[in-house]
Design a protein that fits this description.
By secondary structure, the protein is mostly beta strands. The protein has one helix and 30 strands. The chain has four domains: about 130 residues, Galactose-binding domain-like (Jelly Rolls), CATH 2.60.120; about 80 residues, Immunoglobulins (Immunoglobulin-like, Sandwich); about 80 residues, Immunoglobulin-like (Sandwich), CATH 2.60.40; about 160 residues, Galactose-binding domain-like (Jelly Rolls, Sandwich). The longest helix is centred in the C-terminal third of the chain and has 5 residues.
Length: about 475
């Protein structure tokens, strides 16, 4: 048995590689890689060439060719390739005689292996086996940025072993993530970036993938293209929106002046404000708004060089004026749900009706058993106020299908404005936590200080889920009193 050792370091243990296919134009070629040493592939005298396809780049530590019997070869050659185009010679020997050709190497990295056998007589091969050597520890080194211009840059780096790398980059502000993927397994890597924005900061990360699938990731690197950048928005937000005011905030990449156009339709906007001073960020206060109204705005930014950018028409909607928010409330919606309390969300209580939260956990008021007694909730607005409507946010698993709304000036004499109200006629919505809610809006058009929601005992209850029966308790997330 002949041992051919083209490398100095002996490799003791390898993992077997499943060879995907063998390229040999004869019907018994599959016997070479079928895993059965009792099957044979027969060869005629002369030079025979066969190619093994690994299916992916493999670090090969050993190749074994099992022969039917001791055979004499004039020539034996072994070549490797990553792409089936460029081939490298691994081993070449003359006048060898053996029943096992065993080639061991420290690290043959290849996707294709070509074997050339030349013999003066017929012979047969039992099996060809390849064994993979685990990839060594990879490392990304020598990361360099060069050739930086207004629109391009070149990044180079090295890896300790052959790897197929992913290069992720994006403009630091308002940039979408782009990825370049290498095709070949190499150790010297390079990417050329084109179409960059001048005067802009870029970040990039390298993900290096070894032939065995192991990945490592570099730290984040950065560079800046040359030139003076054009103005662009880094942030633009309509925030702190109340029924009557709002605040627009912008942040740009360079100091700019601004003009804002504003109105109740995209085509009806007029210049509202401007500031010719240069600043990279500003808060712009908008006042004199109306509740529950859509507003449109468009912002123009101009840098010191006169370059201008503008937004498309944007919009926001002012919320209704809920004059019940934070006001005193009392009644029978004081049942404490032990499950919610045990989960650490606090106690369910009637003051949740005016806290502004629509969440089931920590934002719910629950009545006592509505079969045993009347249930009610009273809100004190603090003074006589003009009321447009009530928005009642019922939990969708147990709401009233017959309730009334009373109002009072002094909290003693009550007047019923609406009765036999059915919350099932309300609209479905979701809480911020995803709970199902039924919003029932009831027009009132009145003036009062006290508002009361009242449900008589045994009044019918409903649920949006047909598979559930309504609970004996009633559940309300919020009662909003909307001012005129």
């Amino acid at each position: 048995m002949l041992m051919i050792l083209p490398a100095l370091i002996f490799v003791n243990a390898y993992g077997a590689i499943k060879i995907q296919s063998v390229m040999l134009n004869q019907p018994d070629a599959k016997n070479l890689i079928d895993g059965d040493k009792n099957t044979l592939t027969k060869f005629k005298p002369g030079e025979n060439i066969l190619t093994l396809q690994m299916g992916a780049l493999k670090d090969i530590g050993a190749i074994k060719i099992f022969l039917q019997k001791v055979t004499e070869f004039k020539n034996f050659k072994l070549f490797i390739s990553d792409d089936f185009i460029s081939w490298s010679t691994v081993a070449e020997y003359k006048n060898i005689k053996s029943d096992l050709i065993d080639v061991k190497a420290e690290n043959i990295s290849a996707m294709f292996v070509k074997i050339v056998l030349e013999s003066g007589s017929e012979y047969a091969v039992r099996e060809i086996e390849c064994y993979e050597k685990a990839s060594g520890k990879n490392e990304i080194t020598d990361v360099k940025v060069s050739g930086v211009s207004e629109s391009s840059a070149v990044i180079t780096w090295k890896t300790k072993i052959k790897s197929q790398d992913h290069f992720h980059y994006q403009k630091k502000y308002n940039g979408s993530k782009e990825t370049l993927i290498e095709v070949n397994y190499i150790t010297n890597h390079s990417v050329s970036l084109q179409g960059l924005v001048k005067g802009s900061d870029y970040n990039f990360v390298i993900v290096s993938e070894s032939p065995d699938g192991t990945r490592i990731e570099s730290k984040q690197y950065g560079f800046k293209t040359l030139g003076i950048p054009l103005p662009e928005f880094w942030q633009l937000t309509a925030k702190n929106i109340t029924p009557f005011t709002a605040k627009l905030f912008y942040e740009s990449n360079v100091p700019v002046s601004y003009e804002i156009f504003f109105g109740q339709s995209p085509d009806g906007m007029k210049k509202l404000k401007e500031d010719k001073g240069l600043a990279a960020s500003r808060d712009i206060d908008i006042t004199g708004l109306q509740q529950e109204t859509a507003y449109y705005y468009q912002l123009y930014l101009r840098d010191a060089q006169g370059n201008v950018i503008k937004t498309p028409p944007l919009s926001f909607v002012t919320p209704p004026d809920n004059i019940a928010l934070g006001k005193k409330v009392w009644g029978t919606f004081n049942y404490v749900d032990p499950t919610i309390k045990e989960l650490g969300y606090g106690e369910t209580s009637i003051d949740k009706l005016t806290d502004g939260s629509l969440n089931y956990f920590g934002g719910m008021a629950i009545s006592f058993n509505a079969d045993n007694s009347d249930q009610y909730a009273v809100i004190d607005l603090g003074s006589i106020s003009a009321i447009k409507r009530l928005d009642i946010y019922w939990w969708a698993l147990s709401f009233s299908k017959d309730y009334r709304i009373d109002v009072s000036i002094d909290g003693k004499s009550w007047k019923t404005l609406k009765e036999h109200l059915d919350a099932s006629q309300g609209s479905d919505m979701r809480s911020p936590m995803g709970d199902y809610i039924v919003l029932h809006s009831v027009p009132l058009d009145t003036a009062a200080r006290f508002v009361r929601v009242y449900i008589t005992a045994k009044a019918p209850r409903g649920t949006r889920e047909k598979k559930w029966q309504p609970w004996k308790n009633l559940f309300i997330c919020e009662i909003a009193v909307i001012a005129k």
